[in-house]
Structures are given as structure tokens and as C-alpha cells.
């Protein structure tokens, strides 16, 4: 499953923010590229595929593309607001609206009427309306050239001002996006939907067929699809731009396009930045993920209800762990770095020989030095990965930031960001005391393991108690876990927050100064990286030619490729699978829990309702990454033919390295989804809405 | 499950060898103590329980007690060689004699005749015949007072000489054991059994009922028992000293004794040594265990056969992970260290005021300094935890050590150790290429993560290849994974080994110099710790009175206590459970895989064969630890009433801290085992042999 790699880590693990950088077309491999919608690779498409997209083609596709702020992608597929995405993108919502008696994540769901559709507690969907280049205004605002932390503040102030102005003027969500590692800044304006309702989801057994074993593998047979619907004024939204639903399966060599929101890539990291990932960051994150994975596994063993409560978080963590494991393995192959070093050395040598560019070559050294500082910073974080703590800290920061002028605030607390923040902070999604207690205790234990028992902050947090005792006292005593109480705090006088004796708020106040101190350091490092990568971007463009595409930033991109099999272990993997294959795969793995197809499938097959030759999954060469989950795959005519849900195991290095030798994007076939709705889920009415 | 904590880590994680130290009776809690059989707490037993064991009582119990060199305990329970131990002690053997077609570890086993009993491929059982004090001879041999590494060599040479002499003279396995952290050295002489056959084992579903969730919990309902039989000259051995089998269940407050082999305790670690465990060693080991746990889980998802192959190793790792997690949590409670520091400070102050003892107080500082060095050493190990690698390294070291005089050899390679070593090296237990490849690749990846990609040894090992490639080439190319080939190498000319181009042997040769270099450092640190703890032992004895018991050393000890419930979360946990409770527990957890009782139990219940009121498990206050698994529990008359298999969760801190507030040892009841054999497993003939 692709996107969760991004979503599950965005909460508290420090994000790799830096260094998104241009890749020149001269060095592009085959179908490499995640293109900006305002800078599509028209020549390349014309030349390679004799395809010349019209502006309308591109606009329609853009306006039918949807971003899930929980960390994935989707698309409008009907005039009455239906949104197609992955089951594993929707699973966050499925988890939150499930109860002990109603396990939607396991059992699936079908609303038989609008009335039965279930509102998601905290989803926000975004549709990209407009892009405006604001590079010049940002660059002019950053006048301090010597102090990185001061420069970072100036840059943030410019972001905040532009976003607020735009929001005031248009009413649209407005985000300034850093592209090409700081060489360009674009303002993205989004229409927002926050009334999003669940319409249909299959069982996990169908969506995640093959489980963790088959995750990131191919061939696959997964119905990793879910339908939601956006509402406005309590009615299904009327959508002008939605995708047609192709009635044809894809065929080998078909040209296809993916319009979605790749999360983050590090394609043009310097060798030293990749070494930092390999030697520090990825091993560190993997130790953390494995720790959480075991913790949640243990918790889930306690009872069926505990298993239900911990399900979605565990699966997100397992997914990230598997993705990062593949990413690290690629970096641990000495050839990977050796190849990159050759390219880098050539570039530096060429720049060194050019008197204009020569001074810029110190940027590589600067990046190398920053990596050392990042490594030292890695284990200092105090941003505990606990829902209760994160709520408390956010509420505290919100109250503090509200007292500053908008320009001076942290990015998440500006006027322009406020609505999205409040959606998140007042989510009605349930929190479970038992799980909160275990997770908070482990985070506190981790804090003391990383900072040491004699660290003054640790001493204050523990106050002579064990991490388990501290967590129990906080979870038992707090009311931050109730959404109504959070709303009261947010809407009340700030002194209620500053003086609160709620134990979670007290913990947040204890940690806040150190949180800010560390964030300042991180922002300073990030600023220095931006400046260095901007230089490297200039060198690269000068030496190697035109700009291609910037590294991914969880903003809308267009990728393209062809439906194509690949060689593996001496045989050839065919690009498409069908329903018959799913039943065969289940039979081959009889007795293994994750390979049991749901009853609905077995019954439909027995009753002869399924056309077993219908296409179910396919692979293509398009350049995607975590965050692209749920992206529509469209044909030359712009009609939906598939739904991205994964990359194969060979694609796990594509954070920093695209190849089309074996790496492939994996999709559910559009015809497969339609057949499942009609033949398996008795949802003919719903199927009839698709593409209309 | 208790013992595996010890067994599963003994292979390649550096063992906590140091610092086994006396606890004076003045500071003993209630039933604390793991007593030497040549220094039983007669006065204490007399005083507290009015019990005065005769020499015959003690000798009979000692001679009926059995050590499993795979890491557990057991006892003779019949004149014809039956040995009772835990299923989880025997599971190592059950795993090794299973095949794809015959999954004994899952399905259980019953031999209906001697002929059907299955020989274990590499088990060695030891019975303690004699203890001789050799302290003076060891102390006199260590003349170098300034160079710790040289002193360690002298001490090892004395060990080797004493062991060889004893072996030559008696033919018995002879081990010098370091007690009281180096204050005493005893020579232990064992009778050895290497023809050990499997007689009966229940299904894992009965033995490990409740799975990882219930592991280390109480109440329990586990039939964690297995019967094996020792043979001599291909006939069941005739055993003079075996335990009677009591026909009575235990009752609250009964005095009971545990005779077994606790693995390792750190009861009198200094505060700084405990801090080293808390801040360095335990977090380090837990990261490692979680990594292996996830790796094996992933492997086992591949197929039913993979699940079978990886089962025992995974369960051992999970067990250790859970045990260490509890141990670390105890140390992370600031009260634990604060209490210990008060005691330590008092002791140092008292010694400081005594002119004789004052110079010895620098030992605490010495221990503190050694911990720093150990922390730095922690991640340098090159002893990859891979069966193939360990075989190759051992074969290489054996060939090298054989060329030295016996006195100069490493401990495992002396004349006295040779038989046990060969049993292990020529084991016919199968190795599976797919699993070996995955594990070796991960160990090599870990090596480069710990030592860095530019470490010269890492560069040599990789030679431009990825860890996966290196592992694949080694496992595909080696014949060290075949026991016949290992035997050939061991019995052939050493030049076959030194010049072998087998890729596993080449890897071993590459690592060997660094392995020796690190071992020398470890041995030097260990020697310095011994000398310092010997001083601390003297101080403690002088200040606080007589010697109690030395820390555990995986040698035979006697513990005692009473059958006793305990308070938990406001209610009271009763000390015994019965078969009825097992069926209720299963019903409460319906739908959870690990809580399904096997068919044999359900059938026997349906047929009314089981007396549901029969005692199944019980707890007592005896002081046990990992390694005690499989220990017999006997009554005042020396008759078997139970079989230790676990400690409860509150006992996980007992490595360094005994309490009887809540901590309990958990046993299978003798009457429960007998009933299961008769009513569930149709093994009346076998049951009739017990105690006769």
C-alpha cells in the first residue's frame, strides 16, 4: 500500500523537509518524472508517445483530482460527488467510524441510500484550483544572508503573509509550496471539502488480500478501492469536473497517466544526504517503527476489541516499515552510492571549471556539513507520538501563536491554516484509554532512553514516577481526549490553557520550550539546505540543460508511462491479473489467514456471477511514490482505467532513484472495480453512477 | 516461558558474563535465594519453615535434577530414564526433528513404544555429580596484577588445566564456575547424556495456550510439559535417583522447593552497572530483538512451510523480547535505582570508615568506568547471528585452537569442552537455505549499519555487493550447512579449513582476527569486573554479615517458597487454576487464534474424560529466573508436585530484584500433567511409568 508511508509518519517523526531539486531532462530515465500541472512535459510526450494534451484535457484532469489531507489521493468519478480512492487511504476513516459492534474496516460497508452514507470525522479533501508563481516576492523578503534561523523566520513570514492575503481574497485554502529545493515558490489555491461521507468499502480481506506478505509485491489481486462522496450544505456536491469511467481494460503498451499527490522524493539528494539517510535517519526510523509495530501487535493480542482498535495504526506502521526497509536496502548496495558519486563528481568538476559556477560548488560541502548536524539532532525530539499529547501540544501552541502577528507564527497556526487545523483538533474520532496509555508510556520510555534519565526535562516529566505511572496518571486524568473539551479549551480564554491543571496540558507546557528550541534548530538547518540546494539547482541547470520536474511535495503532479510487464528471477511477470488469478492465489495459500478471500467473493463465484476473466490489477511504468495512493490512472482520452494502490518491491528505491527495469506502479483496474460492485457487492445502483 | 530468554541469546549476543555476587542474608527478602547445593540455607529453612533437609534428601534431589544444555532444566521421573521438562525447552528439539510433512511442534507427539521414540539431534543433558572448591588454585595462578588481559589469560589457563585434569581423571564433564563474582571458584563435575529421545509432547495450542498475550501472565492454564528419555548404549538408561510423583495437588501455603539451573542474575550489580543495562545494553538488545522478530514474522508469512521453519526461533525471540521489556521497564522506574543507590551509598560509607576496607571502595568506581567501556564496545561485535556463519567460525577457531597447548585455548575449545562442542557442530538438525539467506543478509546489513559502510572489514565483506547478494552467494555456495561436510572439515587436515574456498569459511577467515581482537577486549573487561566485584563481595560480607547465595550461573541451585496468591489491581489472584478454568479462558477469548484449545482437549471434555476440577497450574514465591524452565517443584518429602515454566509479569525484574509482593513463579501441576496424559493423550502406559 503506498500512501501510508507518508501519512503514518507525518505526525511526529521529523519530516524530511529539505532539498527538493530539479532533475534535468538530460538525465531522465524513460518515463521518469512527476510533473507540475503548470509545466507539463509537452515536448517529451509528443516526441515519445506522439501525444499532445490539450489545455482542457489537463484542466479537466486536474480539477477531477483530489487530495486527501490524511495522506493520499483520489478523484471525482461522478457528477454527484463520488470520490474514488484506496481502501487503505479510507481506512483511517473506516477505523474512526467503527465501533465494537460495527467493524467496517474488517467487514466493509455499503450505503444503500444517501441517508446511509456515514460522515468522516476529520477528513479534508482539496482540489487544486490555481497555481501562482511567488518566487520573486519570497526571495525579496529574505534579506538576512548570515543568520539561517533569522532567514528562516523571514521566509516563513513571507509565506504567512502571502497565504493570508490569498485566503482573504479568494476564500480558498492557500499554501506556498517550495519547489526545486528553494529555487521556486508557488502559491497553490485549493477548494476544500470537509463534509465527506463513506459510501462503499470492501472487506479488508479483499482490499488487502495477501496481507503484509503480498504488500509491495506483484502479481497482485487486490480490490484496494473505496468510494466516498463529498457534500456541500448537507447535499451531495455537484461536481463539474469528474472522470469518465472507461469500459475497457488496459492492454500491454497502453499509454496511461497518473494524476495524484506524491508525498516526498529525494531524487537529487547529494551523495552525502543519501549517506545520512542510509547511516542515520533510516536505521533510526526503522528501529522506531519496529518498536511501535511490536507494541501494537502486543496490544492487539489482548482481545478482539483491542485488535479492532489497534488495526489501522498497526497496518500503517507495517506498511512504512516495509517501504523503508526496501529503501534502506537499496542504499546499502554500494553500487547505488557509487553511481551517484560518479554523477556528482562529474557535475562538481564541470562547475569547478566554470568561473561563474565555481563559487557555487561549496554548496555540496555545506549539504555534507548539515547532514552531520541533522544526525546529532535525530534523537532529541520531544514531540511524543501520542494523540493525547499531540492534541495538548497543538492546543497550547495555538493559544500562544494566536497572541502573535500572523506573519510571525509557525506555519500550522496562521490564519490561512486555521480551518484545517481546527478540523483536525476537534475531530470526533474516538480515542481509547487503554491504547492511549500504552502508547504514551512507550513514548515517555523512549524519551528517557534517547535523552537519558538525568536529562533535566526527563527528570521533570517523570518526577520520580515510572513512564507507565506518568502515562496512566495523564490518560486517567485528562479530558483532552474528549473532542467537546478540546473545543471548549480552544474557544475559551487562553488563560484556561496556560493555567490548566489537566495533566496532558501540564505535560505539553513542560515540553513546549524544548519543542520550540528544537524546531528553531530544525528550521535553521532546513533554511541552510534550501539555500545550498538552490545553488546546486542552478549549477545543474546550467551544466545539464533545462529543468525537468521538482522533487515531490505532496502537491498535484502528472506522471505517465505504459502498461508493461517485467523480467524477474529468469521469468517474465505479465502486466495484468484477473479475478481467476485471485481465486488461484487464495487456493495456493490455503490455511494462511491473510490469503482467505471474503465470503462475498466465494459466494458470488459459486453463484457464477463473476466473469473470472475480468481484469483486476495491472502495472505500469509511471513514476509514483507514497502519497500517490488513490490516484486515478487515465488513458489518452482522460477516462479512468485504474486506481493506483502500490508500487512493487523493486520500486521501493524510487524515493531517490527511478528505474523502469523492474520497478512498477500497481493499480486496481477500473473494469475490475465496476465488476466487483455489480457482481460481488450488489451495488448496481452505485456502479451506475460512475462516470456520470 | 522462562528459559528461552537465556537460550536464545547465548549464541551471538555478547553474554553478560560478569559480576555474580553475594547477597548477604541480612538483606534477603522473604523467600529470596538461589542456593548452592553445597551451601544450603539450613538454618533459614529450619527457622522459617521448621524444615531440616537431610543430606540424602538433598543428594537425591540433586541427582534427579537435569540440565538441558540448550538452555533449560528438567528432572528424572522414572527408573527407566524419563526426563520431564517444558514443551518450550523441548521445542528446540521438536523443531529440529519436524519436517514439512510432520509438524511435531504444532501437532504434538506420543511414542507408543521405545522404538517410536525419536532421537534429538544435538541435545546434551547434564547431571551434577560433584562440586570441588578450587578457589585457591585459581587465585594462585593469576599472578599478573597490572595487565587485565594478561590476567584473564592466566585465569583461563588455570580453568583449562583444572578442567582437563578432572576430565582425564573422572571422564566426567568438568566446568570451573565463577561464583560471587570471582570470590570463589568451584569445579562442577557432570554425568553427561547425549542420547536423548522424544517420548511425548502436547500440541503447542495446549503448551503455549494464550500465546504471546498470556506469556508471563497469570492466571494460566498451560500444559507446558514434555517427556523425553535418556538412553545409554541404545537402551533406556537405568536411573537410580529419580523423583517420586506426588498424587496430591498443592495447597495454599505449602512449602515447595525448586531444583534447577537459573541462567543469570544481576542481583548485586552496582548502581552504575544497572544504569549501563538501562541506558545501553537493554535498549540495544531490544532493538535487535525487535528487528529479528519482524524479520522472522515476515519470513513466516511466505507459506505454511516457512511458518513451520521459522516457528521456534521466532517464539524464542518473542519470549526474550517480552522478558527484557519487563526488565527494562523496572529499571526505568526511578525508584528502583534510588533504592539501590541508598543501599550502595550506605555500604560505601560504612566501608570508607573502616581503614581495612577503605581501599576496596575504589572498586565501585572501577565498575562504573568499565560500564563506559562496555557501552562503547556494544555495537562492535562481528559474531553474526547466523547458523552457517557460526558453524564456519567455530570450525575455523577449533582448527586454530587445536594448534595451541590446551592451557592457552579459548574456553569452548579445550580438551574438556571438545565433546560438547562436537555434539553441537555435527548436529544433524536441518538448516533451510531460504531462512539462512534472509538471516545472514540481515546480519550483514546490521554489521554495516553498526560499523559504517567505510569500515575496512565491511568493505571487504561487501566487496561491492549488497548484503543480500553477499548472503545469497554464501548460502548458495557453502557446504557448511551440511553436517557431513562439517564433520569432514573437522576430521580432516586443518589446511583444508585454512585454505578452503567455501564462501562461508572465507567469510569466517575474514572476520576471525576482529572477532579475536574484540574478544580479548571483552575478556579484559570481564577480568577487571571480576577483580572489582571480588572486592565488593569482601566489603559486603565484612559489613553485612555472612554470605547468602551467589548470582545465578546456569548451574544447579535450590530455591524455596510457598504456594501463594497475590493482590493485583484491587483484587486477589488465587494461587491455583484447574482444567475448568482453561475451558472458560478459551471461551472468553473466542475468535482469537492463540486461545483455541486443541481438538484433543475438546474431544476429551466432550467425552467426559477430564476431571475439570483437577489442578492445572499454580504459583509460588520461590526465587527463579530464565534457565529454571523445566525445573521440578518438589514438596517436603522430595516428591514432584509441579514443573516450573514461567514467571509472572511482576517477576520480570527479578534479574536484579527479588520481591514477593506480587512476583511469582508459575508451574504446571504434577497432577495436571498426569491427568492430561491419561485422559487427553491416551498415554496411560506412559503415565504409569512416572515416579516408578
Can you summarize this structure?
The structure is a homodimer of 692-residue chains. Chain A is α+β, with helices and mostly antiparallel strands and 692 residues long.
Structure overview:
The structure is a homodimer of 692-residue chains. Residues 3-27 of chain A have low confidence and may be disordered. The first copy, chain A, is globular. In chain A, the strands form 4 sheets. In chain A, strands 3, 4, 5, 6, 7, 8, 9, 10, 11, 12 and 13 form an 11-stranded antiparallel β-sheet that branches. The first copy, chain A, has a domain at 4-124 and 194-267 and 551-689: Thrombin, subunit H. With 692 residues, chain A is of the alpha+beta class. In chain A, a hairpin with a 3-residue loop joins strand 3 and strand 4 (72-76). The interface between A and B is large, with 46 and 46 residues.
Arithmetic mean pLDDT of chain A: 93
Distance between the termini of chain A: 28 Å
So how many helices of chain A?
25
Rg of chain A = 25 Å
What descriptive keywords fit this protein?
alpha+beta; Thrombin, subunit H; eleven-stranded antiparallel beta sheet; eight-stranded antiparallel beta sheet; 25 helices; 16% strand
How would the blueprint of this fold be written?
The structure is a homodimer of 692-residue chains.
Chain A lengths: L3 H4 L15 E2 L10 E2 L5 H8 L5 H10 E4 L3 E5 L5 E4 L1 H10 L7 H4 L1 E2 L7 E2 L5 E9 L1 H7 L6 H23 L2 E7 L4 E10 L2 E6 L2 H4 L3 H4 L11 E7 L2 E2 L18 E6 L10 H30 L3 H28 L2 H19 L9 H16 L9 H15 L16 H8 L7 H19 L4 H7 L4 H11 L5 H9 L2 H5 L4 H42 L2 E3 L7 E6 L3 E3 L2 E3 L2 E3 H10 L10 H8 L8 E6 L11 E3 L5 E8 L17 E5 H11 L3 H6 L3
Antiparallel strand pairs in A: 1-15, 2-16, 3-4, 3-8, 4-5, 5-12, 6-11, 7-11, 8-10, 9-10, 11-12, 12-13, 14-16, 14-21, 17-18, 19-20, 20-23, 21-22, 22-23
